[in-house]
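User: Hey, quick favor. My workstation is busy. Could you predict this chain's structure for me?
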Amino acid sequence: MSDPALETLVRALADFRTLAAPLVLARHERRQEGGTPGERMSTPQHITLLALSAGPLAISDLGAATGVAVSSATRMVQTLEREGWVERAPEEPCADRRRRPVALTAAGRRVMEEASEVVRARFRRLLQNLDADDQRAILEGLRALTKAVQAGEAAAGLPIADSSSSEEGASGDSGEAPAGRMPSRITPR
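Assistant: No problem, here it is.
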């Protein structure tokens, strides 16, 4: 027997997805028109840079951190290398090339921070028209949804992403994590 309150919530979330998806896709189409690299950056590129912001990672670890296959992480790194936003450690003789760490460059850190601010500005414009009660309700709902996602990750044996930036009063910074950091396991494969 199904819980009517849960089904209402599921329908509301599915309806919201239907409403939001065209906005996300339209933003993706307009992304190429952006004036700065941070405005043009795709979500997968941004999430990859965020994953590297804590320090260098091997491609396999980057794939795990962003929830994508190693081949997808490799292609993303190649794209970001061409932009000058990441670099691989120098190759050592007889070393396994797949284990060479990938790190952010100074330019990569700057564009990641710019893209994070672009995302926050978009959310700010969206949420500023809501009253304080609605803003608090959304924050509480996001905290609950984050717990549900993290519980699902733990049950599946996946690493649990830190989302401490959603704490009340936080500026978007979460200790060592960069501003705007999102749990990478939430991103679709």
